[in-house]
Amino acid sequence: MKDAAGISYRGGWTMLPAGTPYEMQLVHDHIQRLVSQYGDIDLRLNGADWVVKRPSGEPPNRCSMCGVGLGKLVYTRSLRNLCPSCAKHSLR
Ligand SMILES: [Zn+2]
Question: What pLDDT, in 10s, does the model give residues 16-73?
């Protein structure tokens, strides 16, 4: 579905609107809460599948785009690990 984020986590599934920057921010805030509460989540956004998780401490522990050290959340797609800031841009 276009302009919608499907999020599946342990024990549930939810869909949120993701058509505007504000809605995207809400999606990311929601993901952050879910990951801290439930662990890894699967995200489907505009036909792309992502996994969002907390860093495991294993390499690579730096963002594939900007090289920043990965903090609380890692967005993974096709073996690329992105920080939340880069993920917000490339998810569009
Ligand atoms: Zn980055």
Answer: 999 998 999 999 999 999 999 999 999 998 888 999 998 776 666 889 999 998 888 9
Alpha carbon of 55 to ligand 1 centroid (Å): 14
CA of 51 to the centre of ligand 1 (A): 15
What pLDDT does 8 receive? 98
How far apart are the CA of 90 and the centre of ligand 1, in A? 10
Distance between Cα 13 and ligand 1 center (Å):
27
Full 3-state SS string of 21-89: HHHHHHHHHHHHHHHHHHCCEEEEECCEEEEEECCCCCCCCECCCCCCECCCCEEEECCEEECHHHHHH
Q: SS3 for 92? A: coil
